[in-house]
Design goal:
The complex is a heterodimer of chains A (about 230) and B (about 400).
Chain A lengths: L8 E12 L6 E12 L3 E5 L6 H8 L7 E6 L2 E2 L4 H11 E4 L11 H11 L7 H8 L15 H13 L5 E5 L7 H16 L3 E5 L3 H4 L4 E6 L2 E4 L3
Parallel strand pairs in A: 3-8, 3-9, 6-7, 7-8
Antiparallel strand pairs in A: 1-2, 1-4, 4-5, 9-10
Helix pairs in contact in A: 3-5, 4-5
Chain B lengths: L3 H8 L1 H37 L5 E5 L14 E2 H10 L4 E14 L2 E8 L4 H5 L6 E2 L8 H12 L15 H6 L4 E5 H7 L6 E4 L2 E9 L7 E4 H9 L4 E2 L1 E6 L5 H8 L4 E5 L2 H42 L1 H9 L4 H37 L9 H27 L3 H6 L2
Parallel strand pairs in B: 4-9, 6-8
Antiparallel strand pairs in B: 1-11, 1-12, 2-10, 3-4, 3-11, 5-8, 6-9, 7-8
Helix pairs in contact in B: 1-12, 2-10, 2-12, 2-13, 10-13, 12-13
The chains are: A alpha/beta (about 230), B alpha+beta (about 400).
């Protein structure tokens, strides 16, 4: 079964195939997967560990090219060249990871600043606003090691949003959070989604998935509609 | 602080300190060893070049060995002849008897000179401390006095006058010497002190500022007598030309059998020619030290890249291209090597001070040329040692790094 929700797609993936390894050790992770994510949608992708959720996220985020199939971003096919994919990733996509992946030697504010710098953007004030909104203003000068787990994840969210991406990709964003922090983060996601932010969230938590407007399940390298 | 390379350097303090020290030692070796070998070797050339003379005359058999010559070389009367025949060209001919004397645990060039010529050789009016040696009488008169004293009834034809008795030499001031301030500092010598060298006791009567042609000055006749067995032979002549006389023209005019006439600058070029191979050796050691220092940097940066694979993957996920990542590694390398070069130059200055203070007979000359060379070596080393780690950083597989987080 394939995803057919294609009213106003920001990202469209068709026939995605992706595998790892060679010969008999090769594992096919994505097997002809189709997915459409509409603008302003909050999509949760669920599935058991190892089913290929993260690989799907990496392909959608143009971090890796599929072995077969195509990804269109805003109606335009993603370039085959790594440089072209990097440009789209830099300008239009934001990532939040399970382990936050903040740079330990930089303060929270500098983590966001370097992300903007990488993208060749100037801080237009959104970063400060997000720090304020997510209750991080007081700790913005601290390094990740001096922040709580929840604060680190919120900093990662600020970093992912500060350049106003069209698409926010989140890979198990609540995986390392306690329930209070997870709820807080999902509230943030819901709020920014209400303001128009498109979000694709990978999760194996049914509770987290409930925050999304649509849930799809992944099994054997393909997607299935979630039927509770 | 959004400047990642600087933040990394400040965060990993021990690693940074060791890297900077490693480079610093390499740079310090380059500057100090070069300054020490060239400085010490060319110190004598520099001192000879300040002599108020234009030409050297020495036995032609010495050729390039002019830099090591000592003992008898030319007849004093040749100097008188030159002055008599070429008075239109030559203002002054100064005979010097060179010998090597051991003082303060080291062998030094000593110059037997006439008191009247000392100023020309040192460009000083008088020693800063004490006085110039001043034999009470000429060597001829000294011998006559001794003859009368030793043979009051007349000297038998077969009897020889004993001219080397310490009491006599001292009484007449023949065993007085002037040394330079660096030798005085090295041996903790002072004016009025007696020292024993070359089997004779000498009295230090003056200490002159360093920079003159030799470290030790003796009366020329005693040097000729003790070390040359002749009071008529000197080692070489320094020739001062009359104002306006072309040195090359004079050099050709003064040419004579069995002697070589050369400009004083010949001394430096002869030094270079004779000891040039030593510079090759020193430069090779310096290059090796720098190579090791930069290999150290490469290993450090490579380890940094391996340690921070996930961080690099995050930057790539955020859109950092290969150029950005390469720039980060190069910038970190440049920061480390720039700091290392600065530390190396500071260490070199400290080493020079320590050498000048504790080994005053050695000369360390730190020239701009070598500072620029050190800075260029630092920049080149930064670039070369960062290339492979930078390449590795640019090739980090972000999906792999993030998948196995």
């Amino acid at each position: 079964m394939s995803d057919t929700n294609a009213a106003n797609p920001l990202v469209s993936a068709r026939g995605l195939c992706k595998g790892y390894g060679k010969g008999r050790a090769r594992v096919e992770v994505l097997r002809g997967l189709d997915l459409h994510v509409n603008k302003g949608e909050f999509l949760a992708v669920m599935g058991p560990s190892g089913c290929g959720k993260s690989t799907l996220l990496h392909v959608l985020g143009l971090m890796t090219a599929p072995d077969a199939g195509s990804v269109c971003f805003d109606g335009v096919a993603a370039p085959a060249r790594a440089g072209g994919r990097t440009a789209i990733r830099r300008d239009r996509i934001g990532f939040v990871f399970q382990r936050f992946n903040l740079i330990g030697v930089l303060s929270a504010r500098a983590n966001v600043a370097i992300s903007l710098r990488v993208r060749g953007r100037r801080d237009d004030g959104l970063a400060g606003e997000l720090f304020e909104r997510l209750g991080l203003s007081e700790v913005a000068a601290r390094k990740p090691g001096q922040l709580s787990i929840g604060e680190q994840q919120r900093v990662a969210v600020v970093r992912a949003l500060a350049h106003r991406p069209d698409l926010l990709l989140a890979d198990e964003p609540t995986g390392n959070l306690d329930s209070a922090n997870a709820t807080g983060l999902l509230d943030v996601f819901r709020e920014i989604n209400r303001q128009g932010q498109t979000i694709v969230m990978i999760t194996h938590s049914p509770e987290a998935a409930q925050a999304a407007g649509r849930i799809v399940c992944m099994r054997d390298g393909k997607l299935f509609d979630h039927n509770p | 602080m959004a400047y990642l390379p600087l933040a990394n350097i400040l965060h990993h303090k021990l690693r940074t300190a060791l890297s900077v020290l490693g480079i610093g030692i390499g740079i310090c070796m380059l500057v100090t060893l070069t300054g020490l070998t060239r400085g010490s070797l060319f110190d004598s050339a520099t001192r000879w070049e300040q002599i108020d003379a234009d030409l050297l005359i020495y036995p032609d058999v010495w050729d390039k060995d002019v830099v090591t010559m000592a003992g008898v070389g030319v007849e004093d009367k040749l100097g008188q002849n030159i002055l008599a025949r070429h008075g239109d060209l030559v203002e002054r001919v100064v005979p010097v008897f060179l010998w090597r004397l051991e003082m303060a645990g080291q062998v030094h060039l000593s110059a037997g000179v006439d008191a009247a010529d000392w100023s020309m050789l040192t460009r000083l009016e008088a020693p800063g401390d004490g006085r110039l040696f001043a034999p009470r009488a000429s060597w001829k008169q000294y011998k006559l006095d001794l003859e009368k004293r030793q043979f009051p009834a007349g000297r038998p034809e077969e009897a020889a006058i004993e001219t080397d008795r310490p009491g006599d030499l001292e009484e007449y001031g023949w065993t007085e010497m002037v040394i330079d301030s660096r030798l005085a500092r090295a041996g903790k010598y002072r004016v009025g002190q007696f020292v024993t060298t070359a089997n004779h006791r000498w009295k230090i009567v003056g200490i002159a500022p360093a920079g003159g042609m030799a470290r030790i000055y003796l009366p020329r006749q005693i040097a000729q007598h003790l070390f040359g067995n002749s009071e008529a032979l000197s080692t070489m002549f320094f020739v001062k030309l009359r104002p306006g006389v072309d040195a090359e023209t004079a050099r050709r005019a003064l040419a004579a059998p069995r002697v070589q006439v050369a400009p004083i600058s010949q001394y430096r070029s002869a030094l270079k020619e004779k000891w040039g191979v030593m510079f090759l050796y020193v430069d090779a050691v310096n290059a090796l030290a720098l190579l090791i220092a930069f290999l150290f940097i490469m290993i450090t940066l490579h380890t940094m890249v391996l340690e921070r694979t996930r961080e690099i993957a995050i930057l790539k996920a955020n859109g950092a291209g290969a150029f950005f990542l390469v720039r980060q590694v190069l910038a970190e390398s440049f920061l480390l090597t720039t700091s290392g070069t600065a530390v190396g130059l500071a260490l070199s200055a400290a080493a020079r001070w320590a050498i000048n203070t504790y080994r005053p007979l050695l000369t360390v000359t730190i020239e701009w040329q070598w500072i620029v060379t050190a800075a260029a070596a630092g920049a080149a080393g930064a670039l070369l040692s960062a290339m492979y780690p930078a390449w590795r950083a640019a090739r980090v597989d972000m999906t792999e790094a993030l998948t196995f987080e």
